[in-house]
């Protein structure tokens, strides 16, 4: 794929240079050489970045598969041991009030569910390892509590382009949604929105503020919101 | 557009749900004189070489009016960085008609160009403004015009006179009669403002507690497209400046971003993520006929039309980092334009289509840069660390942009050769998201 992209880019460059007027032949030749020199360097940079993104995506996929495998194994073991499963009890209404109220669970500071923010590197939207457990906890909760809905809000730091950041924030929110749906959460329980760099939580103009603002928040509708 | 120099009336939008904002804003305006007009102050930092010396005399009887024509004209010309305004000296009386002019005296004071004139109140309440531009070497008149206007138009006429002088002496269009849009941010409110190019007459056309970004003028200057978060997500609106009405252009699932008008004013290029990741689409100005232009699985955003309408520059991270690309308006023939660095964004075609401005990250700084499309040479025009949202003056001479200086959002402008710099501040507020309006009206 990468090779094809590179080949297409090079081909486009050649075509682009080739279409310049003949009277500018000498000038065009000089431009062409310069562009190729820059191109080689840039292609290496981009290829490295692409490879990094691909690697991160592969890792995420591997982790999700591992998670799924573990869940399946746990379910299989439980079935083999002929142990009673919690879920039918809950559906039978046995959970009642004596068990944790889900809304309370969300607010319990000792629960991993109380953490709602996923942080990113600059210009990145992949979910880093340290936030996998957070995404898994919320995914599990949402699967067990179908009455809950979340809105994933993607945010970016203030640097660069507001428009690009709006698209990047959407990618951040969408990547959380994708991870959650891969873990089994029905898509209709998750909506996404991007605020780009328009609603910064930290108002400074330094690395600390920027790091805080490169973030996706998992917002429980009706719990974290007013309505 | 048939606009004869009459300022287009702005009214805050008539939408009922915004009445509260109008009232709240009005109240605030009354309470606080400092923010009452949110006026901008423009400070010139650099000056161009080869400044043209010019002497602008007070027009006779102009002091009887609040708007002093000669001062507005002189301020306009000085702010452009291309003129050196000469002292008027102590000889009195000052001439207001050619027979009164001692050409040799003014030539010896150092300028070939002398501007004189007079202002007279008429019995019908209107005002007649006469001005002449004289050549002190040739000892004759270069040009002269008379205008009959109502008092509120005097400022606009002064800008028009400045435009005429600028055009005559530089050979380029003057932009003193144009307007700019920008967003002012208060602690709990965002306002989209429209002001004269000199920062005066600023008034908001939309105020809301949620952010407003990406304002874009229609080519005829009667409408502004922008992205508002008033429904807690990005939605593109088109706001009619003439009657104050507005309507939704695009409110699809996901992001609705980056409105850019085609030169014909009938269509816009926009960015939507309704089909996955942000892609570029064409849409009619009435919201119909959405067609997809790009087909990548990467972010494609920030379209900018070439002045001839044949190609579009845009930002894409299809190569692994955000870079600037060009394609035909039909969507084909994609060519990568930027290769230096790992973050090149926000391309804006120059009005002559020969170059484009953009934001380039280098050594952690987000600089405003310009690329010559013929030589592909890039020149960085700023030395501050955080810059964005460049917008060309319609004559291509200046680029207005947003910057963060001392923790505050300000606007700044730099000439496309990097020589002239302006800093534009607003008291007690952050300003950002500038958009320079088109040349309108006939002269």
Short synopsis of the structure:
The complex is a heterodimer of chains A (227) and B (443). Chain A is α+β, with helices and mostly antiparallel strands.
Characteristics of this structure?
heterodimer; A: 227 residues; alpha+beta; 60s Ribosomal Protein L30, Chain: A; 2 domains; four-stranded mixed beta sheet; globular; B: 443 residues; Rossmann fold; five-stranded antiparallel beta sheet; 4 helices; 11% helix
Q: Largest sheet of chain B at a glance? A: 5 strands, antiparallel
How many domains make up the 3D coordinates of chain A? 2
CATH superfamily membership of the largest domain in chain B, which one? TolB, C-terminal domain
Broad shape of chain A: globular
Tell me the major beta sheet of chain A: 4 strands, mixed
Question: What does this entry look like structurally?
Answer:
The complex is a heterodimer of chains A (227) and B (443). Chain A is 56% helix and 10% strand. In chain A, strands 1-4-2-3 form a four-stranded mixed beta sheet. The two termini of chain A are 47 Å apart. Chain B has 443 residues and is mainly beta. Chain B has two domains: 121 residues, TolB, N-terminal domain (Rossmann fold); 258 residues, 6 Propeller (Neuraminidase). The longest helix of chain B is centred in the middle third of the chain and has 17 residues. Chains A and B meet through α1, α2, α6 and β3 of A and β21 of B.
